[in-house]
Amino acid sequence: MVRQPVTVNGVTRWKDLDVDAAPAAESKEAKAVVLRQEIGDVLRSIRQAEGRTLRDVSHGARVSLGYLSEVERGQKEASSELLASICAALDVPLSAMLGQVAERVAVAEGLHVPDTVPTEFQREFGHGVVPDGIPEEFTHEEFARTCG
Asked: Where is the HTH cro/C1-type domain (predicted)?
């Protein structure tokens, strides 16, 4: 098993690659992620975590209850405008909802964030230790001078 770094939206994750066996087309299809299903699952989990009903959210988002139900079940593709409206009705930022979707898709694709900095990165980029905090005497102006 070989691990390969993959960067998506500025976040590096590790993907496990099986170099000994060629992946079968069927296994790729079985693992294919349907984005509308992931979006629907996340929307439903947010709504249920808030204790809200479909009727309540559909009214707030100005979308029919049936259509919202179909979006949550992954049967309808929601436009970006509709997703923004649903998120507003749920009082959740669109970016937060999409972040949860991205995490679910990454897991489904076999990507994960490592718990530690891999040794090859430590050797290449330094020791990998990030300080717990920025000293109070390190002002914004000093940071701006340091970063150029």
From this structure: 43-97
